[in-house]
Amino acid sequence: MLKLYENIKRFREDRGWSQTDLAKRVGFSEKSSISRIESGKLDIPASLILKFCDVFGVDLDALWGDKEPTRLESLTASEYDIITAYRSAPRLTQDAVHGVLGIEKREQSFYDSRKEA
User: Fold this and answer.
1) Which domains, ranges and CATH numbers included, belong to the chain?
2) In b/e form, how buried is each residue of 61-98, taking b as 16+ CB within 10 angstroms?
3) What is the reported pTM?
4) pLDDT digits (tens, 9 = 90+) for 6-60
């Protein structure tokens, strides 16, 4: 379990985010919760672990520490914000983004396709 907490801190720092930045992204009102999680003083439920996976753009194995995350390239904090906004946008907006960028829509997620490969 300690590796999980270390990885949360590592992924946050890799992205250049403060504890306050991460707290906002996962829905906490204060950074103190992130500090307690990273130090292993606050146990987190499975639903929050999955939220961290979503925010960091990694699968559960990577966050848990069983493997290194699969990433095409390092993304900036702004790029992560764009991806997060895209994921929470309505399907019509996502379709519009695909059209503007000239990307063929794929129903399967990147991580699902990597698992099958």
Assistant:
1) 2-64 (1.10.260.40), 77-116 (no CATH)
2) ebbeeeeebeeeeeeeeeebeeeeeeeeeeeeeeeeee
3) 0.59
4) 999 999 998 889 999 999 999 998 889 999 999 989 888 888 998 998 888 888 8
